[in-house]
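Q: Start with the shorter request: fold the first protein.
A: Done. Sequence, then structure:
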Amino acid sequence: MPSTICATQSVDCRFSLVNHSKQLSGLKYLHIKLDPNQIALYIKLSIITESSITMILSPKIENFVLHCGEMGSRWGFNRTIGQMVGLLVINEKPLTANEIAEALKISRGNVSMGIKELQSWQLVKVHHIPGDRKEYYSPNGSIWDLANKVFEERRKREIDPTLTLLRDQILNNANSAEEKYAQEQMQSIHDLLETVTKWSAELQRLSPEQLQSLMKLGSSVGKVIDLKDKLLRK
């Protein structure tokens, strides 16, 4: 933009107008053409530069997001992806990659890699707004849905390969007493994992309301099982 305006020539000036009262969908410019004989004023809309948006987390939200990052490794993620999950879950509106990067103080490249990883876990969905080329991201379902997806993905990545290995080892003939004992132990591990897998699959078929009701039973389930065992012994 010119630093001075000459009265004898036409000058085009562009001034950015930032409206913070609502989320911007395009950068607004006030384009003023000054001419000695006439002044024409018009407004031109063009694509937003997201640098005009500041993503600031409150202390409460920041603490939650940071904790999600620390817990990420226990869920099967790294710290950055854990923080991204926490940020998306705690925000009511979908966020752009730039907003995520600014809020977490990470690079756009890290955000892109994190989004791809979350998509492989089916934990994030993409939104598009008509007339806006940016992509917006939000959690792929409720908290219960996300928990089920994490459990299901970890089962595929961790439990299923273990079950496959155990089955292969159990099917092989034992060549010594040591191998026979080892096979018996592996059979016990296999049976336990298979039982847990089947049980978890049944739980995943329940609605959140049904699952909550089941969890509220708590120790009552154990008492029913104890009563059944006592009746069977008689």
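Q: Next, the second protein, separately.
A: Sequence, then structure:
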Amino acid sequence: MKHILAYILLATTIACSNKNGAQIIKTGKEGTDMPTFNMTMTDTITAISIPLSQNQNNSFLMYFSPTCPYCKMETRRIINNIEKLKKTSFIFITEKKHIKNINKFISEFKTKNFSNISIAVDTGRAFIKYFRPMQMPFSAIYDKNKKLQQVYVGAMSKNSILNACKI
């Protein structure tokens, strides 16, 4: 029981801390093809499959919560630099339990105004099962050939985002 409580405390501390900004982590999946993630759009009805078939760009998949301040910080950095990031497709992935807050997030960041930003709901927890993220935001960067290049945990700086998207 003590071990379970210690694990929960550690996991909570890791998930909520971001003192040093984003860090690149090794997943063992680097260089592998992007798996197919079957999700829904924010209406939780319309099905989408990631990678998006028409997408010939780099892909930036960000696992996030619409109420997470670090996720909002990273989103703002992306949107503030969207002109420089036109060749990257951004797919923000959230869990179904966050659906009640997603419309406020969409409205706050005006994500529908950007053709290269999509928001998906991981109703089947496919992304979570594949990557097992312990912290948000959790960003997986794929090149145009859909090979995993890097994974970041924590809010990425403007320069980290721009450099990661040059892959």
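Q: Describe the second briefly.
A: Residues 5-19 have pLDDT under 50 and may be disordered. The helical segments are 2-16, 69-80, 99-109, 126-131, 158-164.
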